[in-house]
Amino acid sequence: MSLAFDLSGCLSARLGDGALEESQVLVKAQSLRPALDRLSDLRSAGEGDPEFLLLPDRRADLEPARDLAFALNEACDDVLILGTGGSSLGGQTLYALADAPLGPAHPRLHFLDNVDPFGFERLLDRLDLEHTGVVAVSKSGGTAETLCQFAVIVEAMIEALDESRLASRVAVITEPKDSPLAALAERWRLPRLDHDLGVGGRFSVLSVVGLLPALLAGLDAAAFREGAAAVLDRALGPEGCELASPAAGAALAVLAAERGYSQSVLMPYVDRLADFGLWYRQLWAESLGKHGKGTTPIRALGPVDQHSQLQLYLQGPADKLFTLIRLETEGEGPRVAPQIVDDPRLEYLAGRRMGDLLDAMARATAETLIRNGKPTRTLVLERLDEEVLGGLFMHFMLETILAAELLGVDAYDQPAVEEGKVLARDYLAVMQRD
Amino acid sequence: MSLAFDLSGCLSARLGDGALEESQVLVKAQSLRPALDRLSDLRSAGEGDPEFLLLPDRRADLEPARDLAFALNEACDDVLILGTGGSSLGGQTLYALADAPLGPAHPRLHFLDNVDPFGFERLLDRLDLEHTGVVAVSKSGGTAETLCQFAVIVEAMIEALDESRLASRVAVITEPKDSPLAALAERWRLPRLDHDLGVGGRFSVLSVVGLLPALLAGLDAAAFREGAAAVLDRALGPEGCELASPAAGAALAVLAAERGYSQSVLMPYVDRLADFGLWYRQLWAESLGKHGKGTTPIRALGPVDQHSQLQLYLQGPADKLFTLIRLETEGEGPRVAPQIVDDPRLEYLAGRRMGDLLDAMARATAETLIRNGKPTRTLVLERLDEEVLGGLFMHFMLETILAAELLGVDAYDQPAVEEGKVLARDYLAVMQRD
């Protein structure tokens, strides 16, 4: 499995003062060779940072995750996944791949990543708590939103089920160290999976954080890792600086940013990758947005955003780099019956399949962007399954950390968000309690 | 009903070379007075362009929409709303306000705004077509995606129901003129509501395009218009150039853009306004993104995006203008029981309500952005209902057309998207038909 990113639509485009030359991208990508070698050594050693690179080759942690998924599947019609940001977006993306609505063998998953009381209460009202499971995910074990959700739901479940049965319905994923969530898990002897200490939330999709939801949905967790491993092999190997590589993607983004291209649009023509766009948006923004650097990740979706954003993309400011992902869907999906559309103006649709239209629109938009001089990278997928999605995750994680290398920023921290958390507690402290 | 936008967090911020002065915003806003007077005359005359300004005062078109909603509600458990872009996003936003899951009196709405065959077939498979309604929305009557969806579903319904009963389940909203969709409606004598000729898709939310879905969901359509009318009264009146006005919002956006602030982030702390962000994103992008002008609308959602985008917002490039919307939720929602969180590290949560946490986070983020010199406009809502949402729609539509006035672009056209449509048909033409 390999992902054939095509950069030719960027190399023909004028960016700022002149065309971006293939040689510039390749030279910049080759400057990453020492970094790639470092990552390759890390992987061979099987330990060290960034630990997310070791996940594709790991299998031992899947067994306890499978056991937990099996137990929750047996007991539950619905499972709530509590968690926010990196504790949720990877799982959501994987779940989108599942063939929902799932058969009776698999529970419905609900990703609760926000704390709006309106929706929360409505959901709680309609759940049958006797057949509801809960998985609380927090790396630090102290995320305010997740702990708030957890406390409210646990209280409701104690009332509905009795405290002694809590451990049959509620589990946590958190780091193996003392924390508020770990203490609560201890108190009720809840099943617990370890959040890897060396894997940050936005790099955790291939850990049990992403894979437990995938297992709950009946997906093949090992296949995600196999796809990621295949991309990793190639990215760190002799082809690691070629044009389709993550290194070249990072080089392209940084060269474009230097020329004023401050936004990076990821536009899949695949509904199942809509959440992938949200996952990518966190990854890119939080890893690179520091010291005044980074570019803004934009999540788009085709064809629907042709009716919303394409006008701006084509005729607005020249500040966006595009990545379009197309899945081969020609000949797939329901067919437009000629007897329904027997109008000359609809002749172009007669006998076509919905996948033909989707495919044609994806091709046409890529070509239109390129014709209009917009730097556009394209990726064509022959299929979309666990292996391919695992590969996509790995490609974009590598691209992001390599872009951080080129920008000279630390891809793994997020120093700015602490101030707001402290302030929020200050505001809470002055509110009335009931 | 009035919306109290607070611009003080922008006026203290350094934008580019120096602070943005209140006087600069006011002078720019006052330059819009002739435009406001023109709009006011239009409204008094009760005819002319842009026609969307006349919708808040209109009532006669609601009666046929109510009749259609009543008939579909009687017959259907599910209603599919076919349409894309402006034919869908307004309705989706209104529907988010409904108290879903709705009681048995109201059908579930499904907004099909994309043509991915995978999800489409799965939805079709699980619908009971005997109790499913369809509303196809296309201003031109020729939108390829909508016609493709329509043809597939109509064929399935003819098979399930018999052709003679189609008119009891399927309706269209399109312009009162000849078009492929109009011809199909004619062929089966389908109920039909007129899409106003002078109202573009992205300005159509207060027309039957947005209000039919609202009526299907049991919402008060007239109240949306009343809220919009109240905002319009104020925006075109003597207070029309004050700091809280749409004119001042437009002036702020344009002044910020001149200083390199190329992105406009709309970040409500209200899940029910998540779709509002998508609606706004089309409105702003498609109306302003032309001749190299416009800024990029960014849809964010609090608090969840604090765990995704806030790092970039605070420490990335200084290129974003922020609008935060907070709903007063202190004291609302489920309460965190002190006996559950009897850990000193969670003392800050004990006895708090979820709405307290949401409120504290919204306040803290606004303050953190402002302290860090990020230009941040805030809006506090005391409640969220039809009237307030109608007002929000009107505020942002006015702000957009007034920004277009300042930028010297036509807010109502989208000339760039035609090229891709033609190309897509070319691609279709060379594909095999079955």
Automatic annotation (TrEMBL), chains A, B:
State which pathway it belongs to. Carbohydrate degradation; glycolysis; D-glyceraldehyde 3-phosphate and glycerone phosphate from D-glucose: step 2/4
Name of the protein described by the UniProt record: Glucose-6-phosphate isomerase
Q: Which Pfam families match?
A: PGI
Q: Which residues form the SIS domain?
A: 68-238
Isomerase is among the record's keywords = yes
Q: Isomerase as a keyword?
A: yes
What is the protein's species of origin? Aquibaculum arenosum
Classify the source by domain of life.
Bacteria
What is this organism's lineage? Bacteria, Pseudomonadati, Pseudomonadota, Alphaproteobacteria, Rhodospirillales
- Identify its protein family: Belongs to the GPI family.
Q: Which Gene3D superfamilies match?
A: Glucose-6-phosphate isomerase like protein, domain 1
Q: What is its EC number?
A: 5.3.1.9
Q: Name one GO molecular function term.
A: isomerase activity
